[in-house]
Q: What sequence folds into this?
């Protein structure tokens, strides 16, 4: 019977084996097909229906990882993973994740891990400087942007209707965002009980940016109709096309209409680390809250979402609740993160962000992000010059949206064929009835060659699929 932990010498042996494998994987993830070649249920069918009664040898468990889990894995760290947003883990961040697992701490209160509590404040202070946000912004790390945004909307509601905390929310509390905003805004509103119907989608201009005038008109009309507008969520880098909403104009309207402004910069915020692109966050310093995900385009392993709030007092008003067993002698002297959100327990996520920020420095991060944007611009120009393809949106950051000049079905078939090659993973999206290919550049291991090899593959695959494609 195995009723003791792995012996230290065994841990060392398997640890070395695992790290050797990791180093090999990071050296060349290209040996794997990007998209898992598996069918729904195939892995489940290959696994026992019940957990083992008797423990199993570590060799067998690691063999299971290689033989069963890896073939069913889609490789986000592959340099040609260009679907959704291309997010990747850098080696310093991975090392920190390993150390985090070893420490296995939970900093619900300062005392339960002073290092994690203070490092979270320090790293988010550093990141705040990189983003150009004011020092008054209080930062904390959640798992995802969805959870950060939910907290932004929840705080907004307590700000607008303080009675919410004790007696529940008033009806018709209404949130605004653009028609291209991420679904997490609706989900946040659903989660806090504001309701999906009370999320109003503001129309956008030809470049997919929220139209401020339309926002102002909707708010006024809603108020006249008895609704209670309380929050607006502009996006810096929409998921669909990375459009950038005019935050300063939104803030101005929010001031007049007394709305909380939560900025979704989950992806686009990384570009603001590049000094000459810091203007992308212009106006955000006047927002009430903002989310930016280091796990998207800042080479930090999933999960790490930075949530900033200029009104930590409101977060406390919304969420602080201390059971007797969690009081400590340091209360009032040190910060207890449990007072600022729903979760009590917290993973030591700041460690990986600290490793990444220290290893690359601002210069290093900016150089990588700048390259990604440059390659996206070059790719967009190549697509525009091709007679059989067209851009479907401007490419202000590192996402290129385009389509073969054919039907939606043909473009869907093209994506399926591309992804089946194992050479690349791109995703699709439909906007206003038009199906398009999204090619996201953002992986730390992606090179210029990768981007243009994929573009060649797109042309070749289209040529095979659609014989009448004109050659250029
Ligand atoms: N906001 C934007 C703009 C996004 O692109 C995404 C996901 O891609 C999210 C929010 C949600 O991110 P998360 O998966 O961290 O919840």
A:
């Amino acid at each position: 019977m195995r009723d003791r932990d792995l012996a230290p010498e065994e841990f060392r042996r398997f640890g070395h084996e695992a790290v050797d494998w990791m180093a090999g994987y990071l050296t060349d993830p290209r040996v794997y097909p990007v998209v898992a070649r598996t069918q729904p249920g195939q892995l489940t069918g290959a696994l026992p229906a019940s957990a083992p009664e008797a423990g199993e040898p570590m060799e067998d468990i690691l063999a299971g990882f290689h033989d069963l889990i890896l073939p069913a894995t889609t490789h986000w760290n592959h340099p040609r993973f260009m679907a959704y947003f291309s997010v990747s883990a850098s080696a310093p961040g991975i090392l920190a994740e390993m150390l985090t697992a070893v420490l296995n701490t939970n900093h619900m209160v300062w005392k339960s891990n002073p290092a994690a509590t203070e490092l979270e404040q320090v790293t988010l202070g550093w990141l705040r400087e990189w983003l150009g946000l004011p020092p008054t912004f209080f930062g904390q790390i959640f798992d995802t942007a969805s959870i950060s945004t939910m907290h932004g909307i929840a705080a907004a509601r307590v700000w607008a209707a303080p009675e919410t905390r004790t007696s529940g929310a008033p009806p018709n509390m209404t949130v605004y965002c653009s028609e291209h905003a991420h679904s997490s805004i609706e989900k946040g509103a659903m989660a806090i009980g504001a309701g999906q119907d009370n999320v109003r989608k503001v129309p956008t201009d030809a470049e997919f940016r929220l139209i401020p005038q339309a926002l102002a008109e909707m708010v006024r009309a809603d108020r006249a109709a008895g609704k209670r507008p309380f929050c607006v969520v502009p996006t810096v880098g929409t998921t669909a096309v990375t459009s950038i909403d005019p935050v300063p104009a939104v803030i101005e309207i929010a001031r007049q209409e007394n709305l909380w402004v939560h900025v979704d910069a989950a992806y686009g915020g990384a570009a603001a680390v590049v000094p000459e692109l810091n203007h992308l966050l212009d106006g955000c310093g006047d927002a009430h809250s903002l989310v930016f995900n280091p796990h998207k385009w800042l080479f930090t392993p999933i999960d790490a979402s930075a949530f900033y709030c200029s009104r930590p007092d409101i977060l406390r008003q919304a969420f602080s609740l201390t059971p007797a067993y969690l009081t400590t002698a340091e209360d009032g002297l040190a910060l207890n993160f449990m007072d600022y959100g729903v979760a009590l327990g917290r993973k030591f996520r700041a460690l990986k962000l600290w490793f990444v920020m220290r290893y690359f420095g601002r210069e290093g991060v900016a150089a990588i992000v700048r390259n990604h944007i440059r390659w996206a611009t070059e790719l967009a120009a190549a697509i525009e010059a091709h007679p059989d393809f067209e851009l479907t949106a401007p490419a202000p950051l590192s996402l290129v949206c385009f389509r073969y000049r054919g039907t939606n079905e043909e473009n869907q078939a093209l994506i399926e064929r591309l992804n089946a090659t194992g050479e690349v993973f791109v995703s699709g999206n439909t906007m206003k009835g038009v199906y398009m290919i999204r090619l996201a550049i953002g992986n730390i291991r992606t090179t210029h060659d990768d981007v243009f090899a994929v573009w060649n593959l797109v042309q070749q695959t289209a040529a095979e699929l659609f014989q009448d494609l004109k050659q250029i």
Summary: The longest strand covers residues 434-440.
